[in-house]
Amino acid sequence: MNRIVSIDALRGFDMLLLCGGAAVLRLLLEWGGGDEVPEWLMQQFRHAEWGGAFTCWDLVMPLFIFITGASMPFAFAKYRERGGEHRWLGILWRVLRRVLLLFVLGMLVQGNLAGARPEHMSLFCNTLQAIAEGYLIAAVVLMCSPRVRVWAAVCALCMVSYWALLRFVPFDGHEGGMFEPQVNLAIYVDCLLQGDWQDGTPYSWVLTSLSFGALTLMGCMGGEVIGRMRGLRAVLWLAGGGLLCLAAAMALEADTPLIKHIYTTTCVLWSGGWCLLLLAGFHLLFDCGGSVAVRLAYPLRVVGCNALLAYLLTEVHGPHGHSLWWGVAHPLVYGSAALAEPVGAAAVVHAGLSLLLLWLLLWFLYRHRAFLRV
Questions:
Q1: Which tens digit of pLDDT belongs to each residue from 69-93?
Q2: For the chain, first and last CA: distance in Å?
Q3: How confident is the model at residue 339 (pLDDT cuts 50, 70, 90)?
Q4: What span, in angstroms and rounded, lies between the C-alpha atoms of 158 and 166?
Q5: Spatial contact of 210 and 159, defined as CB atoms under 8 Å apart
Q6: CA-to-CA distance for 218 and 135, rounded, in angstroms?
Q7: Spatial contact of 55 and 43, defined as CB atoms under 8 Å apart
Q8: 82-127 tens-digit pLDDT
């Protein structure tokens, strides 16, 4: 089965933002606009502090989880086509191997696995592990049933279960329904199981596996819509689903706040709605636009087909706080960046050239069909 251009392009778009594209845009705005750039626009390049807001930067992580789900129906269809009486054992082995590798790589990105400092190490701590949690839940569902209605039912069950836990289960002398940064069930369970290892405003990883599973299943349903329908009909279904999720999130916010740090059900619906709308737009643009559109998607596909490698290069940091890629790119671009210092654009040039070099590396690997996969 051929790869879906829109899914690869959307994955590439997401990773391009994470690996430096968002930083380049922010630096360009700061350089060109200075103090005249509206604060609401600059806020889109930062995470929201806690509840009551959701920025573009907050969407990067859930979009990655969603895209993982969007590609799963096509991957599992390939596994089924290979047949054999032991095919389910083969699929199970692939799933468990991928989950294990994502957990290990997530601990490597966290920075404490290679440093061998157990007191600063946590099993749940990183986006890759959130992907692993969501992928495991969705994989079990897809293995048990190929019916989209079952996927939707389990997705809803995950969201309702997590909502009910946060709203009604008392903990540590507190009543249910607490959503303060340090006083909520999700953070309490994390601290209980993993210790108080996080600095600053904490994120939840254990109970939120239900949210990650729900978001991955949303992606599965989005991918299945594209696989079955294609064209304008798929766009309408995806866009309709996205708008429905956004409306449900706005209705639920009166009861449960939208908080990304603990990934409330409201946040799942809100981010899932935007993910569905983005997938609809990318499907319309790249899958329905003919050969010209496929060529336009090429720069994004180069990144999307090696997204894990790009993530590791830019997110694994050395002892001095710089990423692996910074150590490679900085000696090559700092001279050119210095030439732009008189006009105050050194930071923009440095970030832009570093991103270009990363893309060229990924392009070289893409041309030679060398991909890092788990």
A1: 999 999 888 877 766 555 778 888 8
A2: 19
A3: very high
A4: 12
A5: yes
A6: 11
A7: yes
A8: 665 557 788 888 899 999 999 999 988 876 665 556 655 677 778 9
C-beta of residue 138 within 8 angstroms of C-beta of residue 216: yes
Query: Within 13 Å of residue 272, how many CA atoms lie on the same side as its CB?
Result: 33
Residue 328 one-letter amino acid: V
| Residue in the block written with tokens 């002398």 | 173
pLDDT digits (tens, 9 = 90+) for 142-158: 999 889 999 999 999 99
CB atoms within 10 A of CB 171: 18
Q: Alpha helices of 176-264 — where are they, by DSSP H?
A: 185-194, 209-228, 231-252
The C-alpha atoms of residue 364 and residue 307 are separated, in whole angstroms, by 14
pLDDT tens for each residue of 205-221? 999 999 999 999 999 99
* Burial of residue 79 (number of CB atoms within 10 Å: 0-12, 13-18, 19+): middle
Q: Quick one: tokens of 310?
A: 């790009």
| Cβ-based neighbours of 361, under 8 Å, separated by 6 or more | none
308 CB-near residues (< 8 Å, 6+ apart): 105, 372, 373, 374
d(CA 141, CA 36): 50
| Residue type at position 278 | L
The answer to whether residue 288 scores a pLDDT higher than 70 is: yes
DSSP letter for each residue of 84-147: -TTHHHHHHHHHHHHHHHHHHHHHHHHTSTTTT-GGG--SS-SHHHHHHHHHHHHHHHHHH---
